[in-house]
Amino acid sequence: MATIGSTAVAMAAAEEDLTERARRHLIQPWPVAETVGDEARPLIGEGDGIYITDAAGKRLIDGPAGMWCTNIGHRRRELADVMHEQAMALSYSSPWYTTSSPSVALAERIAAHAPGDLNHVFFTTGGSSAVETALRFMQFYNNVRGRPDKKLILSRGSAYHGSTYLSASLNARPRDNDWMDSAGDLVVKLSAPNPFRRPDGKTVAEFADVLVDEFRDTVARIGAERIGAFVAEPIQASGGVIVPPEGYLPRVREICRANDILYICDEVVTAFGRLGHVFASREVFELDPDMITFAKGVTSGYFPLGGVVISDRLLKDLRRSNHPEAMFAHGLTNTSHPIGCAVALKNLDILEGGVLDHVREVAPYFQARLRSLMDLPLVGEVRGVGMMACIECVAGPAGELDETIGKRIDGHCQELGLLVRPIVNMCVMSPPLTITRTQIDDMAAILREGISRTMDDLEREGLWRRPTNSQAFS
Ligand SMILES: Cc1ncc(COP(=O)(O)O)c(C=O)c1O
User: Fold this and answer.
1) How far is residue 338's CA from residue 238's CA, in Å, rounded to a whole number?
2) Burial level of 310, CB count in 10 A (0-12/13-18/19+)?
3) Which of 16, 102, 348, 393 is exposed most, by the fewest CB atoms within 10 A?
4) pLDDT (tens digit, 9 = 90+) per residue, 53-85?
5) What is the mean pLDDT of the chain?
6) Nearest to 359 by CA among 306, 435, 268
7) Closest ligand 1 atom number to CA of residue 128
8) Do β-strands 291-294 and 262-266 pair in parallel, antiparallel, or remain unpaired?
9) Tens digit of each residue's pLDDT (9 = 90 or more) over 114-126
10) What distance in angstroms lies between residue 328's CA and the mean position of ligand 1's atoms?
């Protein structure tokens, strides 16, 4: 038994050492100025299925599946094997001069799943570079077609599209733009399609009309000849799993078509199984975009890969243009990376070999179990589709209190064995897609207890009081 104690001590020492070394050398993403380069986040040692294990040996349900990416779960030998095999066969070849067979096979397979005539794929290293590629392609497309002024990009409140300069210029969540520069002159922001925050007195259907009118009016005001693209996540993921009103996206798509505005559907989160399909555009949202961006789940997070699927129509337009010599001067060293593409092919085998069916079968249960938390007075709304959901807490009009709630709930849930993704006053849940009903029950039970403990804390600290029946949030 002595070994258990000494193992724990050794792990704690190892964590302390890593923490110190991280503080000396590592910069974590999204740091704040006072701790930039001086911050160590909790150490995770292992992953297995839907679980990760922290440095103290505590096993946690991986509630956010990493960052919406570990779709088929951790420690899949098939993916480890294919990575090894591909590295031993061909670890890299330059996409500037050569083609590798995994990239061809993957492009072909992705094209077969993409809607309409989206038959060509440009591979990138992740979601930001996928969005960046789609936008640069739109600029190139309009330059070559003799429409250099048709470049403005429409984005929406609560959007998140990446961390490269142009993709980040589309972001519009709280704090995204407080301290960062952006290509603001290229972007026009529309309202977030959030039914929970819709104007007072409007039904959700009326809210859809408001959003469509705003879109149409904006195009009329600015002029379609100046607008190149509309970029939209079908469900705004890190904005808080915002599920738009039914029918709004297809209606906006029609306005785009009528005005020759390219519709770029950002499926970085929603593709590769999260909504039960390889792509959700057509199957879930009845959309046939001009381009779809993807990343994350394409390799279930085992290798950095992303891409854009582009409509044949756009490529034909380019070929027919007056500038056959114009070069799309865009490419990354790791475009079409053979290991990434081989991993993605195996990941697709696994998704198509039962995981997509499993998602379609288990998602209603996942949604229902999380919605059962609505009876907790701190919970304002539980929303979601497929295997993505958000618990939005509402502590009354005091916005400053709202900000701490997600972190508080996450803290309690971690003690109880669940990692949550806290976003301000929200908890976003998007577990590995292989999660079973029993594991969903565990997750819901921990969330209930974590939220209850948070309510107790808030009451004890005098920050919040349970509303009486007449005050209860609906
Ligand atoms: C919808 C969406 N687009 C793009 C990105 C950027 O992807 P990446 O972090 O792989 O660059 C993200 C990341 O979360 C995302 O959620």
Assistant:
1) 30
2) buried
3) 16
4) 998 899 999 999 999 999 999 999 999 999 999
5) 94
6) 435
7) 11
8) parallel
9) 999 999 999 999 9
10) 23
pLDDT at position 474 is: 38
Of 355, 387, 298, 293, residue with least CA distance to 62: 387
Residue 128 in contact with ligand 1 by CB distance below 6 A: yes
Which residue puts its alpha carbon closest to atom 7 of ligand 1?
127
Cβ of 131 closer than 6 Å to ligand 1, yes or no, is yes
Helix (H, G, I), strand (E, B) or coil at 41: coil
- Name the residue at shortest CA distance from atom 8 of ligand 1: 127
Residue 239 in contact with ligand 1 by CB distance below 6 A: no
In 3-state terms, what secondary structure has residue 393?
A: strand
Nearest CA-CA partner of 70 in 441, 433, 435: 433
Which of 76, 7, 18 is closest to 47 using CA atoms? 76
CB within 8 Å of 109: residues ≥ 6 apart: 345, 348
Bridge partners of residue 422, in order along the sequence: 427
Ligand 1 atom 4, closest CA: 161
Q: Sort 22 into a burial class: Cβ within 10 Å, 0-12 / 13-18 / 19+.
A: middle
The pair of structure tokens assigned to 471 is 């005050």
Q: Which atom of ligand 1 is nearest to the CA of 127?
A: 7
Percentages (nearest 5) of helix, strand, coil residues in the chain: 45, 15, 40
Cβ partners under 8 Å of residue 331, min gap 6: 95, 96
264 CA distance to ligand 1 middle (Å): 14
Q: How many whole angstroms from 247 Cα to the centroid of ligand 1?
A: 25
If phi over 0 gives left and psi between -120 and 50 gives alpha, with beta otherwise, what is residue 334?
alpha
pLDDT along the chain (474 residues), means of 10: 57 78 93 92 93 94 98 98 98 97 98 98 98 98 97 98 98 93 97 95 97 98 98 97 98 98 98 98 97 98 98 97 96 98 98 98 98 96 97 74 87 97 93 98 98 95 80 46
* DSSP codes of every residue in 131-146: HHHHHHHHHHHHHHTT
3-class SS at 236?
Answer: strand
Pocket test for ligand 1, best of 68, 160, 423 (most atoms within 8 A of CB): 160
Which atom of ligand 1 is least distant from the CA of 266?
A: 1
How close is the Cα of 306 to the center of ligand 1, in Å? 10
